[in-house]
Amino acid sequence: MAYEEHNILTQPMTSDDLKAILSKTENGTEDIISTRSKVFQKLNIDVDDLTINQLIVLISEHPSLLRRPIIMDDKRMQIGFNEDEIRAFLPRSYRQAELRDVMSSGA
């Protein structure tokens, strides 16, 4: 299963990366910003008042504002840890083999 890992804390995302993520969200900044992060609370800003460019600069300066993990393929995006939703990114053959293993172990 091929994938590419990108550590946003050590290698900040580009403006194009962030625009691509925002374009796939259903609720814009609400989907990607971690309002529980210490950085967000310390900054005390309303991201809804920011332009896209201001938001991109803010995230570039403070990558920990982003909820993680962010998993994307050509069609889907999952933000935040949800085991069942992340599993949907695994190839069907892997999911079927995993199910067989569970069924054979009697779990």
TrEMBL record:
It holds the Pfam family ArsC. Transmembrane segments: none annotated. It comes from the Bacteria. Keywords: Disulfide bond, Redox-active center. CDD domains: ArsC_Spx. Gene3D superfamilies: Glutaredoxin. Belongs to the ArsC family. This is ArsR family transcriptional regulator. It comes from Pseudolactococcus chungangensis CAU 28 = DSM 22330.
